Amino acid sequence: MQRNTRVFFILIILVIFLFPLSAEDKRVIPLDLYLVIDGSRALQSSKNDVVSWINDQVVENILMDGDKIAIWLAGENARLIYSETFSGQTGKTGIRDILTRMDISGGTADFSGALRDAASRASRTPGGRLAVTMLITASAEVLEPAIAGSGQGMIRWFRSEKYERWQVLIVGPDLGKKVQQAAAAYMSSRR
């Protein structure tokens, strides 16, 4: 029974925080978004589709004024290419410009460095903010070296969206603890 309750609360959290908002919804919790993009040649032919998806789904539908966004390009070496507090049209223009100019031509996709940096930043996210990491990759197989060993815990809670030649993995760092707290609060209110 307790396991079913945990699964229920996990689904509720994912529905509330990770699905695109409809016109009548208004998110009130500020977001720290860590976006890691595959910089290998495997994603090269899909770059325009990926950039379009990020602009439509993330920039237009998820980000709000005051949200923080950091973008890494995971090529031969992962590197931070953008980090700002989102602010209306200026934020939209800055993100669109950096995405359009990014060079996706590496021989491999090094997600390890970006994931470590994103996890470190997420661990310092102040209370009252939601930290979410999105990984965009040509295939989940290139993530395998990054999530082996100590990285396994970070990828424990995720949602995946698959497209023709690429996919998005959405990770909510430290959701396990938050789900346990929500489940405990719910169970104590039922007594």
Mean pLDDT: 77
Q: pLDDT under 50 segments (min length 5)? A: none
The beta-strand count equals 6
Report the β-strand fraction as a percent range.
15-25%
Written account of the structure:
The protein has 191 residues and is an alpha/beta fold. It has a single domain, classed as Rossmann fold. 40% of the residues lie in helices and 21% in strands. It is built from 6 helices and 6 strands; from the N terminus they run H-E-H-E-E-H-H-E-H-E-E-H. A 6-stranded mixed beta sheet has the order 3-2-1-4-6-5, with helices on both faces. Strand 5 (158-162) and strand 6 form a beta hairpin. Helix 1 packs across helix 6 (175-189). The protein is globular, with a radius of gyration of 17 Å.
Architecture blueprint of SSEs:
Blueprint: H1 2-18, E1 31-38, H2 47-59, E2 68-74, E3 78-85, H3 88-101, H4 111-123, E4 130-137, H5 144-147, E5 158-162, E6 167-171, H6 175-189
Helix pairs in contact: 1-6, 2-3
Which features characterize this protein?
single chain; 191 residues; alpha/beta; Rossmann fold; globular
Compose a concise summary of this entry.
The protein has 191 residues and is α/β, with parallel strands linked by helices. Helices cover 40% and strands 21% of the residues.
